[in-house]
Design goal:
The complex is a heterodimer.
Chain A (H helix, E strand, L loop, with lengths): L18 H10 L13 H5 L4 H29 L3 H28 L2 H13 L1 H15 L6 H18 L1 H11 L5 H29 L4 H30 L5 H18 L13 H6 L35
Helix pairs in contact in A: 1-4, 1-9, 3-4, 3-5, 3-6, 3-7, 3-8, 4-9, 6-7, 6-10, 7-9, 7-10, 7-11, 8-9, 8-11, 10-11
Chain B lengths: L2 H7 L5 H4 L5 H18 L6 H10 L5 H4 L4 H12 L8 H11 L13 H13 L3 H13 L1 E3 L1 H6 L11 E5 L4 H16 L3 E5 L20 H14 L9 E7 L5 H6 L15 E6 L1 H8 L3 E4 L2 H8 L8 H10 L7 E4 H15 L3 E4 H6 L40 E9 H4 L5 H18 L6 H10 L2 E6 L1 H7 L7 H29 L10 H4 L4 H4 L8 H7 L7 H14 L14 H5 L13 E5 L4 E5 L19 H12 L10 E4 L4 H13 L4 E2 L2 E4 L3 H8 L1
Parallel strand pairs in B: 2-3, 3-4, 4-5, 5-8, 9-10, 13-15
Antiparallel strand pairs in B: 1-9, 2-9, 6-7, 8-14, 11-12
Helix pairs in contact in B: 1-3, 3-7, 6-8, 6-9, 8-9, 9-20, 11-12, 17-30, 20-23, 23-26, 23-27, 23-29
Classes of the chains: A mainly alpha, B alpha/beta.
Catalytic activity (chain B): a 2'-deoxyribonucleoside 5'-diphosphate + [thioredoxin]-disulfide + H2O = a ribonucleoside 5'-diphosphate + [thioredoxin]-dithiol
EC number (chain B): 1.17.4.1
Organism (chain B): Ureibacillus manganicus DSM 26584
Chain lengths: 322, 697
């Protein structure tokens, strides 16, 4: 038996700035794919021209979320020292698992079993998809105990994944959903996106705190490394997009959107944007507004209900200063 | 991608960065919508005569009502409508109209009606051959009156649904009644109705059946049956049926009922799509204030002991008596504050249940001597007396009581302030609503059809309050806004009552048991004839425009006439939440504050960006969003309106996720204290992470 001393997480004393905020926000947003009636999309799906693209886009996202659940969050959690941050990241990991599962939920609802099997085969064989999964996983797997730099790199990779690489996939459901096509599947995607944006901000924030501890020279070195990684991934995204979106004629719009999100990812880790500002498809832009669009009481679940904060009713409750 | 959708979405291009809207894009979107979508699909006719003749011959329009008019007159009506030079003010209004209201060919490929066509057809159809009314109807609808969706959508069409869509049913504590009412729900849901069902009179879980204890299954399984009925019976699969179940808070099943809407409830008891509402008598609030326990009862005991159903007694009056009576089982005792906290938790997590404040409703109910209002409908604005049917075995005749169907219409407040004769506008609206009621016969639900014939109830409401206030530079929730709605609703009350009196006078007929009502006794007028007329500020006066301020003397004269000639409609006013119809007219919904300056609205068809009416980059500060309006001010505003409304006003409360259950309880308690009759949804805005982080750093 070993003789290590184990420490308990103490939430009564904040040890990490904002950990509580990220924790609260994530739990408030809890959702499950089964709450959204994807089956209402079946009729449209049957007449939908670009099924192939749609399926591939979702399959690609499934792979990235799988990597993020199984490797990304786990690895980072294992090496982060702050207990509260560990807890927050563990929760994030669970949500990634929900995300990965919700793509399957959409597939199960819309596709046949043999189609689904083919799709998972495609995932294994698409070189660009495999490239990004490999690239990111490699950085995750290279974290060394006690090596802050390797941990920072993993956090950076995580932000790239969640704030940047996902978006070539998110584009299509948002683009269609905004035009009334496959709206319920799009709602699942927008709920996933709502979570990913917290993850990107939170991990980016933790990364920034870590980054400050490095010497200036180290910081410069890491910056160079970062932009190189980004460019490499960007190059791969161009190929991936051209491959998957070829038949839809949307590649140019998707790529503009990718650049927009690459800039956002950089800002999350505290770096300057790399690409010049440009116009992004307005339907897709409005699809990612998180404020909770106006709720139609007669339609689906909607994304704006959450956990209650309980406080007891007291005598004071009956007093009004009016 | 459709250009018009792209343009519509571009309204928000720079909004998140600079707060500047590109409103021109919305106009461009509307013109492109006509160029690309409407005009190519619109079937052209050479003359009006040809249009009418073809559409009748092809079986699109009903022949009968067209034949009531000469062609010359019909042409005149078209001229009249066309002279208004109507233009859709927003992309939302145009797309909503052409997507959902305009008549299309059976294969969906051709558009057969423009806006003016629809208006003229509604007018001709509802006027039933009365040329003067038809002409007034065209005027009213082109200017400020909007019938509710089922009337606007179905009038004049051959293949049509019902003109009314709102129903209330009472279920009795017997298998016959449960089965009969579920049958009604299937029928009404098939017709596209939203149905409210009162479950208060059903015995709770574990109650005796035929004297054997622990046999009854309680209200939840019945609610599940209702839910399944509504989802089975939909309109050709176009829209799911919808319904709401109500339960009194003193009913022994109340705890299960409250938690049944929570997203994490057990699937066997979870009500996923059925809405829920609870009836709360004042005694509950009083016990809660004193921090006492409340006792839950079984309607089975109450009926056995007093021969009255739970919904037929005033719990506030009877509560102490029930506690003293040893034949009444005290099924459970629980802390009122804790129970209400559970209600608030459920509301945060699901938006449900709605709440009806029983005594606020019944104390001022003008038909209180005829019976109690026991429940409300799907949008909590209909509050009418009901009488439970006695559903017997199949070899005996049923004795039908009174249930409710209600047809609704709304007046655009902004437009109404500009019409020449407000009294005439309200009178025309009342006559159109009254005709809808006389033209309606829901034959498969005898209790509804009977009540409709006897009661002629209607519900006239208002919309575009926030929009109008913005044009007047008045802040929603301010004293001026409250004074304004007070005057406006009083005028609605006065003129609708005057109109209903005139109709009674003309027809020589009043609603059933009018003589027992507070109108006949004159009690109804006490609040108006004994008070002093008050001055209003110049701002309010200007905002009222052509809407008269009703004086004490006007009320005194009306009181005399009403007591002499009677009233035709048992109920006249109710303010609905107004969804689609306010979009068509580019109005803000109901008398509610806007929820977003620029709404992002997801319909099945597409995502539409809808800047609020009259919104410009200069007046945006007046469009305070509902979540930022002080809820107490908003309740004061609704309370001022409620005083003049014989039924209810659908009121949604808006909170953010920063609120606790206690704060939420507090505004409900305030609403109850202010005489509000019902609270519809609680809507919650989640803070975005940026906001959370911003307030931390």
């Amino acid at each position: 038996m070993s003789n290590l001393t184990y420490e308990a997480v103490n939430w009564n004393k904040p040890t990490s700035e904002l950990a509580q905020v990220f924790w609260d926000q994530q739990w408030k947003q809890i959702w499950f794919p089964e709450e959204i009636a994807v089956s209402k999309d079946i009729k449209q799906w049957q007449d939908f021209d670009h099924q192939e693209t749609y399926k591939k886009v979702l399959a690609g996202l499934t792979l990235l979320d799988t990597v993020q659940t199984n490797i990304g969050m786990n690895q980072i959690v294992a090496h982060v020292s702050d207990m509260q941050e560990k807890a927050v990241l563990t929760v994030f990991g669970s949500f990634e698992a929900i995300h990965a599962k919700s793509y399957s939920y959409i597939f199960t609802t819309l596709c046949t079993n043999s189609e689904i099997d083919e799709l998972f085969e495609w995932v294994k064989n698409n070189e660009f998809l495999q490239y990004k999964a490999n690239k990111i996983s490699e950085i995750y797997n290279n974290i060394e105990v006690g090596n802050a730099e390797s941990l920072w790199k993993a956090m950076y990779a995580s932000v790239m994944l969640e704030s940047f690489l996902f978006y070539s996939g998110f584009f299509y459901p948002l683009y269609l959903g905004g035009q009334g096509i496959l709206r319920n599947s799009a709602e699942v995607i927008s709920l996933i996106l709502r979570d990913e944006s917290i993850h990107g901000v939170a991990v980016g924030f933790f990364a920034q705190n870590l980054f400050k501890q490095f010497s200036l020279e180290k910081q410069d070195e890491l910056k160079v490394w970062s932009y190189e990684v980004l460019l490499d991934l960007y190059q791969n995204e161009l190929n991936y997009t051209n491959d998957v979106y070829a038949k839809t004629g949307l590649s140019t719009d998707v790529i503009a959107y990718i650049r927009y999100n690459a800039n956002k990812a950089l800002m999350n880790v505290g770096f300057d944007a790399m690409f010049p500002e440009e116009e992004v498809n307005p339907i897709v832009m409005n699809g990612i507004r998180n404020e909770g669009s106006t709720y139609d009481f007669f339609s689906q679940k909607g994304s704006s209900y959450a956990k209650a904060k309980v406080a007891p009713i007291t005598d004071e409750t009956f007093h009004f200063n009016r | 991608m459709k250009t018009y959708l792209k343009l519509n979405n571009e309204v928000l291009n720079r909004y998140s960065l600079t707060g500047e809207l590109e409103l021109d894009k919305d106009h461009d979107a509307t013109s492109h919508y006509f160029l690309e979508y409407v005009n190519p699909k619109l079937r052209n006719f050479n003359t009006i005569e040809e249009k009418i003749r073809n559409l009748v011959e092809e079986g699109y329009y009903e022949k009968e009502f067209i034949e009531l008019y000469e062609m010359e007159f019909i042409k005149k009506m078209y001229d009249k409508a066309n002279r208004y030079n109507f233009r859709f003010p927003s992309f939302m209004s145009a797309s909503k109209f052409y997507d959902s209201y305009a008549m299309k060919s059976r294969d969906g490929q051709e558009i057969l009606e423009k806006y003016e066509d629809r208006i003229v057809i509604i007018a001709l159809y509802l006027a039933q051959g009365d040329k003067e009314l038809a002409e007034r109807a065209v005027e009213a609808m082109m200017e400020a009156y909007q019938p509710a969706t089922p009337t606007a959508l179905n009038s004049g069409k051959n293949a049509r649904g019902e003109l009314v869509s709102c129903f209330k049913l009472t279920m009795d504590d017997s298998m016959n009644s449960i089965a009969e009412n579920i049958g009604y729900c299937l029928e009404l849901s098939r017709l596209g109705g939203g149905v409210g069902v009162n479950l208060t009179d059903l015995r709770p879980l574990g109650d005796p059946i035929k004297g054997i204890l622990n046999r009854a299954s309680g209200v939840i399984p019945v609610a599940k049956l209702l839910e399944n009925s509504f989802s089975y019976s939909n309109q050709l699969g176009q829209r799911n049926g919808s319904g709401v179940a109500y339960l009194n808070i003193f009913h022994a099943d109340i705890e299960n009922f409250i938690s049944a809407k929570k997203p994490n409830a057990d699937d066997k008891i979870r009500l996923a799509t059925l809405s829920t509402g609870i009836i709360i008598p004042s005694i509950f609030f009083e016990l809660m204030k004193r921090d006492e326990d409340i006792v839950l009862f079984s309607p089975y005991d109450i009926y056995n002991e007093y021969g009255k159903r739970m919904s037929e007694i005033s719990m506030t009056e009877m509560y102490q008596e029930l506690l003293r009576n040893s034949n009444i089982r005290q099924i459970k005792s629980l802390n009122a504050r804790k129970l209400y906290t559970e209600v608030k938790k459920a509301q945060f997590e699901s938006g449900y249940p709605f709440e009806i404040f029983d005594d606020n409703v019944n104390e001022v109910h003008p038909l209180k001597n005829i019976g109690r209002v026991k429940m409300s409908n799907l949008c909590t604005e209909i509050l009418q007396v009901q009488e439970t049917s006695n559903i017997t075995d199949q070899d005996q005749p049923n004795e039908y009581g009174l249930d409710v169907s209600c047809n609704l219409g709304s007046i655009d407040i902004h437009a109404a302030s500009k019409v020449q004769d407000f009294g005439k506008l309200v009178d025309t609206s009342m006559r159109l609503l009254t005709n809808v009621s006389t033209m309606t016969n829901i034959k498969n639900v005898p209790s509804v059809s009977k009540a409709n014939q006897l009661m002629h109830s209607v519900g006239l409401g208002a919309m575009n309050l926030h929009g109008h206030l913005v044009t007047q530079g008045i802040l929603y929730g301010s004293k001026d806004s409250i004074d304004f709605i007070d005057c406006f609703m009083e005028a609605m009350n006065y003129y609708s009552l005057k109109s209903s009196m005139e109709i009674a006078k003309e027809r020589g007929e009043t609603f059933y048991r009018y003589e027992d009502s507070d109108y006949a006794s004159g009690v109804y007028f006490d609040q108006y004839v004994n008070r002093e007329d008050e001055e209003v500020s110049p701002t309010v006066l200007k905002a009222l425009g052509n809407i008269p301020i009703i004086t004490k003397h006007m009320w005194q004269a009306l009181k005399k006439d009403v007591m002499r000639y009677g009233v035709f409609n048992s109920y006249r006013l109710a303010t609905a939440p107004t969804g689609s119809i306010s979009y068509i007219r580019s109005c803000t919904a109901s008398i509610a504050p806007c929820t977003e300056r620029v709404e992002i609205r997801d319909y099945a068809d597409s995502r539409t960006i809808y800047p609020m009416p009259h919104l410009s980059n200069d007046n945006a500060h007046l469009y305070v969003e509902a979540y930022d309006v002080n809820p107490y001010d908003m309740i004061d505003l609704y309370a001022a309106a409620q005083k003049h409304v014989d039924q209810g006003i659908s009121m949604t409360l808006y909170v953010t996720d920063q609120w606790t259950t206690e704060q939420l309880a507090k505004i409900y308690i305030y609403a109850w204290m202010r005489g509000i009759k019902s609270v519809y949804y609680v809507r919650q805005r989640l803070q975005t992470l940026e906001e959370c982080v911003a307030c931390q750093i």
